[in-house]
Amino acid sequence: MSLLNRLYNYFNLRKWKKNKNFAYGHGPIWDWFGLTYSSYLVLPRRSLQSMPWSWQEKFVKLLNEMENNIPDFYGEQGSNYMIRRRNYSGKFMHDPLSEYRHQPPLEITE
What is the model's pTM? Predict the structure, then answer.
């Protein structure tokens, strides 16, 4: 880890020192995103609804916990976002997962 990263983590963690569960700049979610510059995690509804029932219950429970315990969970603009799929050149393209009402569930391999 570079000196700059260590300093950033040190001051960032000091800022949030009061929260013992703080793992903003490191931890499982940070690691899952890896080195991407993504600010959001977008999950297709069709994929979520295709999960086994027990997974859906756990997922919704966590979403409800986040919503109830993180002030300003949706940001200043609320939860009003519009997602459109683009190809690597930036052109809009058809999203086969957007049709969740009239499509069968996706196959899940466990």
Answer: 0.65
Q: Where are the alpha helices (DSSP H) in the chain?
A: 3-15, 28-33, 45-49, 53-69
pLDDT, position 74: 75
User: Residue 109's beta-bridge partner residues?
Assistant: none
DSSP state of 84: -
Domain ranges of the chain: 1-40, 42-110
Tokens read off for 5 = 């990263």
Q: How confident is the model at residue 24, as a pLDDT? A: 66
Question: Closest by alpha carbon to 100, among 63, 56, 60, 50?
Answer: 50
Among the listed residues 87, 70, 89, the one whose alpha carbon sits nearest the alpha carbon of residue 79: 70
